[in-house]
Amino acid sequence: MCVAGLQAQDLTSYVQPLSGTASSTTRSAAKHGASTELNANTMPAVTLPFGMTQWTAETRQSETKCQPPYLFKDSMLTGFRASHWLSGSCTQDYGSFTLMPITGTLKTLPADYTTPFSHQSETTLPHYYRVDLPKYHLITELTATTRAAMLQFTTQKADSIYLLITPNSDRNEGFIKIDAKRGLIWGYNPAHRLYQGWGKPAGFSGYFVVQVEAPFSAWGVYSDGKTKHADSLHNASNMGAYIGFKLQAGNQLRVRVGTSFTSLEGAFKNLNAEIKDWNFKALVAQNKQVWEKALGQISIETANQQYKRIFYTSMYHAMQQPRLFNDVDGKYPQFSGNYQVKQLSGGNYYDDFSMWDIYRGQMPLFEILKPNLVNDCVRSMILKGQQGGWLPIFPCWNSYTAAMVGDHVTAFISSAYVRGIRNYDVNEAYRLMRQNAFKMAGDADYKDGKGRRALDSYLKYGYIPVEDSVPEAFHKKEQVSRTLEYAFDDYALAQIAKGLGKTADYQVLTARSLNYRNVFDPSVKMVRGRYIDKHWVDPFRGSSKEFYITEGTPQQYTFYTPQDVKGLARLMGGPQQLETQLDKLFDAGEYWHGNEPGQQIPFMYNYTPSPWKTQSHVKQVLEDEYSDGPGGLSGNDDAGQISAWYVLGSLGFYPLNPASDQYLLTSPLFDAYRITLPGGKQLKVMAHRKSVGDVYIQSVKLNGVAYSKSYLTHAALMKGGVLEFYLGDKPNKTWATKATDQPQSLTN
Fold first, then answer.
1. Taking burial as the number of CB atoms within 10 A of a residue's CB, which of 3, 208, 351, 667 is the most buried?
2. What CATH architecture applies to the domain 11-18+45-296?
3. What share of the chain is helix, strand, coil (3-state, %, to 5)?
């Protein structure tokens, strides 16, 4: 297949926004997933890449934790939500509001106005959504820009139509105001913190302004189903506003909506900047082109249409977060503030980083595709650290959370740095990262979510002993996982220390990068909980979920040493033993793709005498753990990390160690693809195979020259050129088996 033959395609038609809206049907999820971990928790979001607000049909009201606004199994609809749901998460929405059109008699209780709908009557695309509401003889359509949206309601018979506008506060908070003369409704829904500091004000609100094309003949406010003819309402239970119209059959009612995190004025400015007229069809076309350009940065060639659907759906999901937080004029809410508004001097400010997940693959994907976005994200991290006093661990809801384990904002900044993405104050970034790595926050700051959890134990013992229950954390205990992840974060920070000439820090941090050894028990060849006196937790259950492991088992977490895979192999008895232990994991069905700490595991065979097993297992994961149906993701998508894994794995390279500049190779899923790189260069990749089942690498050429290494550097990738894989149906057991052809490791 010739890459030059790749043709322009209608890529948005391949995106399946309903994928991930039902419980997972994949192999590993069936065995290892449970409860909320069985759900990908995505929604059919209408948005633009990394937009401030996503729009979705709403089948679940409120902003309940671990409940996305839309579930595929539901058959009743309660409106159309302007959502800030963290895509694919088990968190909760915030600052959202819902618009619901109804006809006939005014009703303001959800139990009265909820309406049946059918998936057969839905059209779901990244830039457009449509659904028929037969109960109300209405067709609803919507499209969205980065900070604004337009909805169009078409009546199918003459009737009264009412539009309900509901701030979705579960705390009976918020405000709504009707300006009948100007055809405007505006309001806000205060955001609250999650995890550490749970329930406290987050220091900003979700603001909105709704502009109606036609004058309305009735209006008022409601609370708990009771209406009154007033123009505003504040801090009431189940509150909202309604406006009413008289329409004939075939009439269309259009509304435009602006959103902001700073003010009502900001929402209105955003609306006026992004939607300048009432031409719904033209806006749909404009938003489609934005998505076509974003998706088209990677153009794939394959006869398998399902592969195309999964790939471009994965791209779509990977571009839901991080979330743009600033208005068109550069104003944004101060991080961890109290309704203070800050002004950017340039670029954009982002938040909602599910950082425990996305540093692994999702952010490295955009270090290839969108380095300017990555620069903005690092600058956003620096601003957060300066405004709050500490670099956050898991910045979401524009606040500290102390969620999950590790200190992976450091890992993310390091991954950008080692790839030469440095358009920010590197020294200031280093100061903040170093503070996290070397200092414990004071009691009040620590309880507020600032600083590494249990850092004092980690520094004192070289691991976190099980006696330290890590009480000030959403994820308590999990001492072994914390130890492993801090060791990697230390390695990540050491790379920047080395680049800045901070030799003493580099040496200390590099030594700490080996702390994973302190929780590895050679008698069982796995990581294991350990006490202060260094004896191990008994009994040992390697394939069971244990209190000292995060969302997994000791066997699964043993392989989380991305900085030093060769060192781990040596602890096990050598590369052959590493291969044996990997085989045991896969043979026992213990690989769990839905949990991020194991997602590098299939690529670890590139450090063994059998890199061909990476090619086999990655292909199996791509086939078993992804589909294009509603249950087609293997667990929480976690802001796009599960989806980004598919993108990278199907292209044939993955950053096993995100804080290095190397991508580990495997066989591409597609016949050919092209990545359009920043600056206009292109990487063209061809997979030469005689039959569809040819998955094993026989040889590789880079720009026509034989290439024997099982990795590709970031610099080589970003130069562009032509990369060719020659594949066969049987392994080539000599390709990339020499130590000199294997990826780097902290120790050899």
1. 208
2. Distorted Sandwich (2.70)
3. 30, 25, 45
Does the pLDDT of residue 101 top 60, yes or no?
Answer: yes
Domain boundaries, the chain: 11-18+45-296
Question: Looking at residue 412, what DSSP letter applies?
Answer: H
- What would the 3-class secondary structure string for 239-285 be? EEEEEEEEECCCCEEEEEEEEECCCHHHHHHHHHHHCCCCCHHHHHH
User: Cis ω on the peptide bond leading into residue 395 (within 30° of 0)?
Assistant: no
| Cα 591 to Cα 171: distance, rounded to the nearest angstrom | 41
Alpha carbons within 13 angstroms on the beta-carbon side of residue 78 total: 20
Residue 313 DSSP code: H
Q: What letters, b where the CB count within 10 A reaches 16 and e where it falls short, cover 166-200?
A: bbbbeeebbbbbbeeeebebbbbbbbbbbbbbeee
- Distances in Å between the Cα of 148 and the Cα atoms of 60, 264, 744 are 22, 13, 46
As a whole number, mean pLDDT of residues 40-63 equals 96
Predicted pLDDT of residue 33:
73
3-state secondary structure (DSSP) of residue 701: strand
Q: What is the 3-state secondary structure (H, E, C) of 185-229?
A: EEEEEEEECCCCCCCCEEEEEEEEEEEECCCCCEEEEEECCEEEC
**pLDDT tens track for 256-298:** 999 999 999 999 999 999 999 999 999 999 999 999 999 999 9
pLDDT tens column, 676-695: 999 999 999 999 999 999 99
- In the predicted model, is pLDDT for residue 2 greater than 80? no
| pLDDT band at 213; cut points 50, 70, 90 | very high
CA-wise closest residue to 414 among 340, 341, 509: 509
pTM comes to 0.97
